[in-house]
Amino acid sequence: MGENDRMTPGAHTDGTRAVLIVEDSENSAATIEMALSGIPGVSVLLATSGVEALRIMEQPGSAVQAIITDLNMPRMDGFELIRRVREDGRTSAMPIIVVSADTDPETPERIAQMKVDAFFPKPFSPAQVCKKLEQLLNATTP
């Protein structure tokens, strides 16, 4: 077995913390990724749908420690992704931040019930998303 097969969830062997951005808009994904590049010790993984995100998280040695997701995406939306992450005992406490242009007035309450850690409507402040992510990562680091 390789070294990655023995990694503890949430931490790469080099000490970096992986954040999974789940976003089908290339511009939004790039904006978030660029903002996260300023956080020391964070590496970024990208997925364009909930299906792809779950595939990444299920890989042996996956060290995803937090998710930043859109809600409206093809194949599997962010609501379904969040539901599946929260129902899985291995990931149920993982920090999740939603960044979405969803304008349904029920969305904030719906995602709050799903125990999402933060919601940023688009257009969003990359600096605010980074600040919240850092708070969440620092709160979950042993």
Task: Give a brief outline of the structure.
With 142 residues, the chain is α/β, with parallel strands linked by helices. Helix content is 37%, strand content 19%.
Structure description:
The chain is an alpha/beta fold. The chain has a single domain, classed as Rossmann fold. Helices cover 37% and strands 19% of the residues. It has 5 helices and 5 strands, in the order βαβαβαβαβα. It has a 5-stranded parallel sheet with strand order 2-1-3-4-5, with helices on both faces. α1 packs across α5 (126-140) and α2 runs parallel beside α3 (78-87). The radius of gyration is 14 Å and the shape is globular. Mean pLDDT is 87; it is low at 1-13.
Q: How many beta-strand elements?
A: 5
User: What kind of assembly state do the chains in view correspond to?
Assistant: single chain
Largest beta-sheet details: 5 strands, parallel
Order the strands across the largest sheet as they lie in space: 2-1-3-4-5
Helix percentage range: 25-40%
Give helix and strand order, one letter per element, not per position: EHEHEHEHEH
- Low-confidence parts lasting 5 or more residues at pLDDT below 50? 1-13
User: What is the molecular shape?
Assistant: globular
Number of domains: 1
CATH topology: Rossmann fold
| Class inferred from helices and paired strands | alpha/beta
| Radius of gyration of CA atoms, rounded to a whole number | 14 Å
